[in-house]
């Protein structure tokens, strides 16, 4: 499952329009950026879950 999430995150980030600053400014490219952010968050959440099973605490809280 971890490998699948990593592959999804990598594939998603590789589809982001270059240069990145244009990807977040141009409306048609923003959904790809958001998809990548969500994939990276999913990967991070799973990593924290696995770490917890191993007795390691990882804070996944986002700043306000």
List keywords for this structure.
single chain; 64 residues; mainly alpha; elongated
3D architecture notes:
- The chain has 64 residues and is mainly α.
- 67% of the residues lie in helices and 0% in strands.
- The chain has one domain (2-53).
- It contains 3 helices and no strands.
- Helix 1 runs antiparallel to helix 3 (30-53).
- The chain is elongated, with a radius of gyration of 14 Å.
Q: Concise description?
A:
67% of the residues lie in helices and 0% in strands.
- DSSP helix fraction: 55-70%
Structural class: mainly alpha
SSE series: HHH
Total beta strands = 0
Overall pLDDT: 93
Strand content bin: under 5%
Shape: elongated
Distance between the termini: 29 Å
Number of domains: 1
Number of helices: 3
Radius of gyration: 14 Å
Largest sheet geometry: none
Low-confidence stretches: none
Secondary structure: elements and pairs:
Elements: H1 2-14, H2 20-25, H3 30-53
Helix pairs in contact: 1-3
């Amino acid at each position: 499952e971890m490998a699948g999430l990593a592959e999804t995150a990598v594939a998603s980030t590789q589809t982001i329009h270059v240069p990145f600053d244009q990807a977040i400014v141009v409306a048609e490219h923003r959904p790809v950026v958001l998809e990548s952010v969500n994939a990276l968050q999913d990967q991070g959440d799973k990593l924290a879950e696995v770490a917890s099973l191993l007795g390691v605490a990882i804070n996944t809280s986002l700043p306000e």
